[in-house]
Each structure stands twice: as C-alpha cells, then as structure tokens.
Amino acid sequence: MDGCACCSLKADVVKVLADWAALPEGRRPGRVVLETTGLADPTDLVDLEEDPALAGIRLVGCLTVVSALAPLADLERKALLRRQAALASLVYVSKADADPSMAVAWESQLRAAFPGHAIVRTRMGEAPAGSPDPWEGVIPEAPAPTGAPSFAQARALTLRFDHPVDPEALEALFLRRPDRGEVLRAKGVCAFQGWPARNDGSDRWAFQLADGRLEITPLPALAGGALASAAAVVIGLDLDHADWRQRLRALERPPAGARRKVVL
To answer: Within this chain, do residues 142 and 193 fall inside the same structural domain, yes or no?
Structure first.
C-alpha cells in the first residue's frame, strides 16, 4: 500500500479489520499488530476502537520505542515524539546496550514526564525477562493537538543512483545540519567508489540515518545473484528538494567516459 495507516489509509485499515472480525471462529486472528513509522501520530489508530464498524475489537496496548541514542532535548523539542510517548501504554528505550548511560537518562526523563507509564530499557532489540506485555496495557487519553509539525507535513524525496558514490561525501552530507528544514530519516542503497565487490559478488551497501547516526552495512546479492537497485530516500520537514537532489547527484563518481545526470 502507498500511504499512512494513521491517516490516508485509515479507511482501508478499518475495512480489513472489520473483514477479519467477521470471519468464523478458528479463522479469525486473535491479535493484530499495527506497526507505524517513527514519524506517525498514532492518535487515529488509538481511536480505532471507537469506530462503529469495529465493534467487538478491543485495543489493548500502544507501544512506543524511543532510541537511547537520540538527544535528550528531543522530548521537549519534538512535539511529535512527546505525543507518541504520551499515547503509549508502554515505552521501550531501545539500544540500551549501545549507550547504557543515555538509556538511564532517557528512562529518568520519561518517568518524570509520564509518571504512570511502564518504561523498559531494551538491549539488542529484546526486553528483559518479566517485562510487561506490550499488548496488555491501558491506553491513555489522547493529548490535545499542539499544531506542531506532524507526519502529515513530512515529505520524502527519492533519487536513483546511476554510478558509485563517494563514501566520505555521503557521510559529510548526511551528518551536516541542512541549510533549511530538518532531516527526520534517510536510507538507501549504493555502491561506493573504490570499494570492491565482496565474496558474494555484491558491491551494494545499505545506509541509514537515524538519531543523528549514519550506519552503513553490507547488502548481500538478491536471489539469483541480482543486485539491489541503488537509490537514496530522504524524509524531512521543509527541505529544499531541488537542492537535495543536486547534492545527492553530486555524490556520484562516474567512471571515466561516463556521464552524470544533471538535475534541472
């Protein structure tokens, strides 16, 4: 599907859930988990229980994941993050293994802001034994809208790479503060100039920007030896898309005799 389950696709979600609920005993799902993006306002999903078409379906929990690697100021600076945390019945502070002291600081800050919340630090994506079940919580009442930037205002741009890119230039681009707007997330696949193919025959690398950290990991070849398409996706608020397309295209390092596309 192309859209957000919290807004543009909400009617589709309601229809699918209603169809499942109408299935006979034994064929009906016992539990449905809806995973939103990190940019989604879950208010509409929390309100699904009130839809007349979903009588008999009970919402039992809302889990929000907060990265321990994010700046502590984000809880006050980013209204959407605070709203996501406020709506949660359980908050996971993830990546506690990567930075234990920041994980403790985030847990302390969240407990001060939301005294009634269950908060758990996770390591390597797993909660400690005996932690609360994410889907047996009580959903808090939705806070009043603040008018702050939300998922509906975020925009994504995609650019397909035709040539290998400069790894140092890519790092410099994504770790700099943009002249305009805010980069919320970026990800992509590329080949790097000067980096040879690995033993599996793939020269593709996946990159992801989250919480101000750029992670690069090897991407194996697809079934049959095919390679993933090279492209970059940048999601942000009030970004200059024309400028970003030029900057992304400028990362490419065409081989001798090849031409680079010009962004008009």
So the answer is: no
